[in-house]
Amino acid sequence: MAEAPFKPRDLRAHPPPFYPDYRSTHFRAPSHALLHYAPTATEMAGPVFGQGMLGADDDDLIVNYAAAGQAALGPRILVHGVLRDQDARPMPGKLIEVWQANAGGRYRHKKDGYLAPLDPNFGGCGRCVTGPDGTYSFRTIQPGPYPWPNGGNDWRPAHIHFSVFGDGFAQRLITQMYFEGDPHIALCPIVQSIPDPKGIDTLVARLDMGQTVPMDIRAYRFDITLRGRDATYFENFKDGT
């Protein structure tokens, strides 16, 4: 089967390296032309991730850090979707890692100084592998927004970080998923540095009542597209490759 031609993405839709409202870019925006280094054979060929490396509860953040008989606190949600390539073909067997703040907006990290309490039964990270049809899902707690020292009173929207691995360790794409209807999306300098509204829209998960479990857990759908003009925005490889 012949490989479909690569559909390049319009880089004008990506954030500029220097965005005045995003204070960190004042210090880390590159001042010289970017350099490209071809990946090595080792980077492209391995390691290969598979089902065998996952634990029984790796895809359930509600219980995977909790004490026996306990569960994380907060709104219970199911996040699911499909990982596809630029031609809408499913991508099976790909490792997806996620990490997030707890329901109060605090990360389990020693440098997180936010005053919100830690949840002793929530670790904030998990992973899953896409199925034969490219689908994935994991259970978690809806994270809370949190303040960050940017402009004095800036808050990050509630979000979940995604890391999508290909067939080699160097084939890794990182992004963030936001929630439909969050008013902080329109106020966040990080999100609003993306000049294309369609690019922002690729990062927003939709409430999916069809997958909601009555009296238990709400569901959100977040599909991920690799490469091409319709690619999900990825923060580490802005050309989608």
Structure description:
By secondary structure, the chain is mainly beta. It has helices spanning 25-28, 41-45, 189-192, 197-201; strands spanning 76-84, 95-100, 125-129, 135-141, 146-148, 154-156, 159-165, 172-179, 204-207, 218-221, 224-225. The strands form two sheets. Strands 1, 2, 3, 4, 7, 8, 9, 10 and 11 form a nine-stranded mixed sheet that branches. It is globular, with a radius of gyration of 18 Å. It starts with 24 loop residues before the first helix and ends in a 16-residue tail after the last strand. The mean pLDDT is 88.
Number of strands: 11
CATH topology name, in short, is Protocatechuate 3,4-Dioxygenase, subunit A
What's the CATH class label?
Mainly Beta
The count of helical stretches stands at: 4
> What's the CATH architecture name?
Sandwich
Q: How much helix, percentage-wise, in residues?
A: under 10%
Overall radius of gyration:
18 Å
Structural class: mainly beta
Low-confidence stretches: none
In short:
The protein has 241 residues and is mainly beta.
Topology:
Layout: H1 25-28, H2 41-45, E1 76-84, E2 95-100, E3 125-129, E4 135-141, E5 146-148, E6 154-156, E7 159-165, E8 172-179, H3 189-192, H4 197-201, E9 204-207, E10 218-221, E11 224-225
Parallel strand pairs: 1-10, 1-11, 8-9
Antiparallel strand pairs: 1-4, 2-3, 2-7, 5-6, 7-8, 9-10
